[in-house]
Design goal:
heterodimer; A: mainly beta; 11 strands; 59% strand; globular; B: mainly beta; seven-stranded mixed β-sheet; four-stranded antiparallel β-sheet; 56% strand
């Protein structure tokens, strides 16, 4: 079945350093979504990417969708302690329409 | 005003008991979901309802039975609770087929 792999599983950075998490799907995606879950909280929708090669920015966050629509990345520039949490990608299969979540990348930021 | 609200927030119960979790959304969304998040934070879909109709039923034991009395509510009843059912259960909703999900704050279920 469809799999969505996300790496790394954990990342510890010093405040001010950059951070990137990668998402790879075994099948072509119609779109990909990104969510952030703070410790003890619930997933919060950040963005959706639809077009091949699409790049979107939200302040210090940059989201990319691969040309083949099978991978995506989230890059955070100059991390802050407020960026702490688990970032999930969720890919929607072009074939089945199902939304499958990646395992998440948990970001820790040292002040 | 809470968009997707779940009750209870915490639930501690003994093995073998039957329990229910309630979910309500005031966003007017068409589709509602139940997700299970295990201790490793993996989010797995359990059920999906669209306008009270069941559209996704993943490989979930029959002990789990969703019920949607109307478009704004999706409840989850669990029979004969087992230790492995301990997890955080999230309700979510979305307006259409190509939109982000709005999650509830979760119900932390602990089976002892």
């Amino acid at each position: 079945g469809q799999q969505v792999m996300q790496i790394p599983q954990y990342q510890h950075v010093q405040e001010g350093e950059d951070f990137t998490t990668y998402c790879n799907s075994s099948t072509t995606l119609s779109n990909i979504q990104w969510y952030k879950q703070r410790p003890g909280g619930h997933p919060v929708f950040l963005i959706q990417l639809v077009k091949s090669g699409e790049v979107k920015k939200q302040k210090r966050l940059t989201f990319q969708f691969g040309e083949a629509k099978k991978n995506s990345s989230l890059h955070i520039t100059a991390t802050q302690t407020t960026d702490v949490g688990t970032y999930f990608c969720a890919g929607r299969s072009s074939n089945t329409g199902k939304l499958i979540f990646g395992q998440g990348t948990t970001l820790q930021v040292k002040p | 005003d809470t968009a997707v609200s779940q009750t209870p927030k915490y639930l501690v119960t003994q093995m073998g008991n039957d329990k229910s979790i309630k979910c309500e959304q005031n966003l007017g969304h068409d589709t509602m979901y139940w997700y299970k998040q295990d201790s490793k934070k993996f989010l797995k879909i359990m059920f999906s309802y669209n306008n009270k109709e069941l559209i996704i039923n993943e490989t979930v034991p029959n002990r789990f039975s969703p019920k949607s009395p109307d478009k704004a509510h999706l409840n989850l009843h669990i029979n004969s609770l087992e230790l492995g059912d301990s997890a955080v259960y999230f309700c979510a909703s979305r307006p259409g087929t190509e939109n982000g999900y709005t999650f509830g704050s979760g119900t932390r279920l602990t089976v002892v």
